[in-house]
Amino acid sequence: MNIPGAFIGFLVGGAAGFLLTETVGAFFTFVIDRTLDVDGTPVLLAAFIAVPILTAVLGAAAGARFESRG
Question: pTM, whole model, 2 decimals?
Fold first, then answer.
């Protein structure tokens, strides 16, 4: 297993997941004019926590695989 590739993939995947959640929040706020209430909706809060974690894990797996190929 390639540790540097997995670490870089983890960081990039986590940043991409965070950017994705922020983009969805900004879209709902500015385009649809509806503010997402994460405190009042536990499912939405879980999604906003889980998406960056899942993308970070997927990024780590992709980074480890990509670096070990070449």
Answer: 0.84
C-alpha 4/C-alpha 37 separation (Å) is: 37
> Is residue 10 within 8 Å of residue 59, measured between CB atoms?
yes
Helix, strand, coil shares of the chain, percent, nearest 5, are 80, 0, 20
Closest CA to 48 of 23, 13, 12, 11: 23
Locus of tokens 């540790």: 3
> Is the model's pLDDT at 70 over the cut of 60?
no
CA distance 16 to 51: 9
